[in-house]
Structure formats: structure tokens, C-alpha cells
Amino acid sequence: MKAKEVALIGLFVALTAIGAQIRIPLGPVPFTMQVFFVILAGLILGARLGFISIALYDLLGALGLPVFAGMKGGLAVVIGPTGGYILAFPIASGIAGLGRGRLRVLTAYLGLAVIYFLGWAWLSRFLGPEKALKLGVLPFIAPDLAKVALALVVARRYERLKP
Predict the structure, then answer these.
(1) Which residues fall within 8 angstroms of residue 105, CB to CB, at 6 or more apart?
(2) How does pLDDT run across 56-93, given as a tens digit for each residue?
(3) Could you tell me which residues come within 8 angstroms of residue 82 by beta carbon, excluding any fewer than 6 positions away?
(4) Model pTM?
(5) What element of type H or E holds 17?
(6) E strand or H helix at 40, and its extent?
(7) Which positions ≥6 away from 18 have C-beta within 8 Å?
(8) What span, in angstroms and rounded, lies between the C-alpha atoms of 74 and 27?
(9) What span, in angstroms and rounded, lies between the C-alpha atoms of 39 and 156?
């Protein structure tokens, strides 16, 4: 791995941790900026490095570093109600990084769909499927669609600046 790639991985670990702290509590799942940085990592770093960066974020959080929403960390958070979303993040970043050209839009939103599906499935174990959908997915659709759109714009601008 090149030094620039390592630096970008570290940058996205840090940005995702910061994004987790930008939050509005809405119930069992807070509104944060994590989704924006998870998708952006895939779009900018590509599938492999995007996956690695967000998997590293998850690992640091699971080991107890306070990188998750509300300055929380530890395995209890990962196996708790929001664990499905956290575990879906690296997969979503990897999927977002698969697309090139016009396919980037599709893969970015497919990454978001993976976050919703795995997050909802995990949260359903705690709340039941209907309540998990009502509290863990539906309130987030419009803001998350906007976050993915913004990530696509930022990634496009980044690509134009790249030498």
C-alpha cells in the first residue's frame, strides 16, 4: 500500500468518527453524518480501500475507542441495537466504490440500501420488524438520500482536482 493510500484510509477513519458525533437523537438510531463519509470513502478510495477504511473504523470502535455516535465504543455497541448499521458500513463503502462513470450513482445508492437492510434486520431482533422499520429506516430515507447525493457531488469534484 502506498503512503498516500494509508493517509487517505486514516483520513476517512477520522472523518467517519467525526461524522458519528454530528448527531441528532431520534430514538434507537440517531441521525448522524456517518452515512455521508461511509459512501464518500468508497467513492473516493474505491471498493477495496473504502472497505478497509470503514472496516478499520469499525474495528477501532469495537476495541473501545469512542468513535461511534455519542462518543461510544466497545463491543457492546457493535452487538447492540445499532450494530447492524455499523457492520454494514464497510460493505456499503465497498459497494459504493465499485461503480465507475454513471454506475457510481447506482452503486452509491446500493451501498445505502445495504446499510438499511442490514441495520433494519439487526434492529428487528430488538424491536420487531415493523417497529425497526418505523424507527430505524423510514425517518432516515430523505436525509440519507441527500447525503449520498452530496457524497456523489463531492467525489466528482475531488476527481476533477486530482492530478
Answers:
(1) 99, 152
(2) 999 999 999 999 999 999 999 999 999 999 999 999 99
(3) 28, 29, 68, 69, 119, 122, 123
(4) 0.95
(5) helix 3-21
(6) helix 34-62
(7) 33, 37
(8) 20
(9) 13
